[in-house]
Amino acid sequence: MKIKKILTKLIVIGLIICFVAGAMVLGLNFYIIKSVKRNVISVDDTASLEDVDCIMVLGCGVYADGTLSPMLNDRLSLAADVYGKGASEKLLMSGDHGTEYYNEVSAMKNYMTSNGIASSSDIFMDHAGFSTYESIYRAKEIFGAKKIVIVTNTYHLYRALYIAKCFGLDAYGVGVDDTYTGREYREVREILARDKDFAKCIVKPEPTFLGESIDLKGDGNVTEDKSTD
Fold it and tell me: 86: burial class by Cβ within 10 Å (0-12, 13-18, 19+)?
């Protein structure tokens, strides 16, 4: 009987711990969304913003042949609309270019130039935007951004805007609706990612790479990958 009582007590304690942990995860998730929701705006709203340093597009999947994934293609299409409204004269493409064989940012820039949306000199590339946290960190510390418009999927915007807020950036977000396969998985994953970055924003660890400052008022061609010249 003693063993049964001990097991029952352990199960109850375990359930309480799971409940408290779950409540904390969901509570933080709700707090992050609520704290930045007012900064999620429409494409038309971006036209009234002033002194925006850049329109920042957060990268995602690129196929082996350099073709954009549908999600990234839609992010860039939306960024083109924002750019057309005159929110800023500069674009910042931030994504993963961690190896010679995988390059999100060049594919992103190529979309803008090949479609005649923006000139090469107005497009900056952050080759070390390996995560949302690192992209925002580097936007401020490397590119000197103070006021930005972030373009990504709507579910992703809340985390990006929260990180920007924690770094003192005046940030607004325009989002693409998530209509792709695996949406439920991404929604669950994003809840955990928001909680993870909540903790990161307290500690503020440095990103994988920092480097020399790059002036967004200058020529974006300085961010071209020299190894491909």
Answer: exposed
DSSP state of 67: P
Amino acid, single-letter form, for residue 170: D
The torsion of the CA quartet 203, 206, 212, 218, rounded to 10 degrees, works out to: -60
Mean pLDDT in residue range 56-85? 95
pLDDT digits (tens, 9 = 90+) for 93-116: 999 998 988 999 999 999 999 999
Residue 222 Cα to chain centre, angstroms: 23
Q: Could you say which DSSP state residue 121 is in? A: G
Q: Report yes or no: 178 and 70 within 8 Å, Cβ to Cβ.
A: no
Q: What residue type is 81 in one-letter code?
A: D
With contact defined as beta carbons under 8 Å apart, do 141 and 164 qualify? Answer: no
Q: What are phi and psi of 61, to 5 degrees?
A: -60, 135
Which residue type does 150 have? I
| Cβ atoms of residues 40 and 149 within 8 Å | no
Beta strands in the chain (DSSP E): 54-58, 91-94, 123-126, 147-153, 170-176
Give residues with Cβ within 8 angstroms of 87, minimum separation 6. 46, 47, 49, 52, 55, 149
Q: Provide the pairing of β-strand 170-176 with 123-126.
A: unpaired
Query: Which token pair is 97?
Result: 């270019």
DSSP 8-state code for residue 122: G
Secondary structure letter of residue 180 according to DSSP: S
- pTM (2 d.p.): 0.90
